[in-house]
Amino acid sequence: MWDEPYLETCCRSTLHRALLCEGIGRPQALRDQPCLERLQAMGFVTLGADGRFYITPAGLSRHDQEIGQLKPMSARASRVRA
């Protein structure tokens, strides 16, 4: 993990949004465009011929490492209340 490039919070959020848009792709010209370009340079998303960004297998793996292991807020909240 330490030898991998660090992802800023904004880029982790953008990676998650790219995952959520997996089938249709994430359009350009949104506020997270700089993060999408950074993620593309790292190989985590790719720009399709249709001008949309799609998550790559490397991006899916990184998402699982950084975001997929987090528990949903509802699970954390129920644990705190108990």
List keywords for this structure.
82 residues; mainly alpha; three-stranded antiparallel sheet; 4 helices; 50% helix; disordered C terminus
Briefly summarize what is shown:
With 82 residues, the chain is mostly helical. Helix content is 50%, strand content 11%. It has a three-stranded antiparallel sheet with strand order 1-3-2.
What does the model show?
Helix content is 50%, strand content 11%. The protein has helices at 9-20, 33-42, 57-66, 73-81, and strands at residues 26-27, 45-47, 52-55.
Main β-sheet: number of strands, strand sense, barrel status?
3 strands, antiparallel
Strand order of the largest sheet: 1-3-2
Count every helix, treating DSSP H or I runs of 4 or more residues as helices. Answer: 4
Q: Span between N and C termini?
A: 33 Å
Shape assignment:
globular
- The chain-level structural class is mainly alpha
User: How much beta, percentage-wise?
Assistant: 5-15%
Oligomer: single chain
Spans of at least 5 consecutive residues whose pLDDT stays below 50 are 75-82
User: Radius of gyration over alpha carbons?
Assistant: 14 Å
Helix content: 40-55%
Order of helices and strands: HEHEEHH
Say how many strands there are. Answer: 3
Mean pLDDT reading: 84
Structural topology:
Blueprint: H1 9-20, E1 26-27, H2 33-42, E2 45-47, E3 52-55, H3 57-66, H4 73-81
Antiparallel strand pairs: 1-3, 2-3
